[in-house]
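Person: I have long wanted to understand how a fold can be written as tokens. Underneath my words sits a plain record pairing an amino acid chain with its backbone structure tokens. Those tokens are not coordinates but codes from a learned vocabulary of shapes. I should like you to check that the lines agree and flag anything odd. The protein I mean follows directly.
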Amino acid sequence: MTGRVDGALVLSLAFHAALLTAVAFRLDWPTNARRAGTQVVSIKAVAIDQGAIDAQREMLQQAQREREEQVRLAQEAAQREESARLAQIEREAEQEREAERQAQEQREAQERAAAQEEERLRLAEDQRKADLEAEKKRVAQAEAEKKRVAAQQAQRQREAEEAAEKKRLADAAAEKKRLEEEKKKAEAVRIARQKKEAAEAARRARESELSQMLDMERQRSAAVQSGQLDEYMAMVQQKIRRNWNKPANVREDLECVISVRQIVGGEVIDVNVKRCNGDQAVIRSMEAAIYKASPLPSPPDPSLFERVLEIVFVP
């Protein structure tokens, strides 16, 4: 637009300059005609108003300045709109980064808690083993002390009864042997009774556990047959779809098989895309959608809950 205005201004000035030259030439024409001996023709001079020319030039320049100002204002408005759009994009990206950071912190906190629990159990087991070993040593020492005292008493008794009859000593030895045998028999009976009681307790525990497993399996089978499993999986997929930022290049026949690990309460702790006919952008968007959908919906029946879900996702 600026080029067209400048061209018009130049053409206007050139036209007025040519007009002034023509007028000047015509004013000098009678003299030239007399010199040439030709017939003199009277020409009426037309006066050029320089003020009108300047006014016209000023008007054109003013129009040019107004158009340039309009162009500048339009450019500034466009720049403001672009800056606002870029700021909105940056805010959305920052929100996504913050959500990912919080999810990562939650995963790390869960891993730390699991490691602490494992360390606590290891220390408890080490302490239990140490206590058991100490108890064994204490029992062994007590038994050794008991034997030592008994030996001393027997020695004193033998020394005191050294002059006694050999039959009494033989009877005493026989009685001691009988008592030891009875003690061994009693100990064997006690050990056998303990083993029997432990075996019975283990059998009852196995039966109780098996009964609970059968009840849970029957409850789950009934829930599956009633359609509650399909309802549960539909709820999970619906929440994932609501949190899915669908890329622009998604195939119409998209199908992804995704393994999702969750804890009680539906909190997602791991996502693994096992098979997907989409590109990497689609796979990343699916993983992000599942983490954003955490916690996942609870199943209508608690028996349907599984720590690992295999989801077949289609748009």
Notes: The chain has six helices and three strands. The longest helix spans residues 50-160.
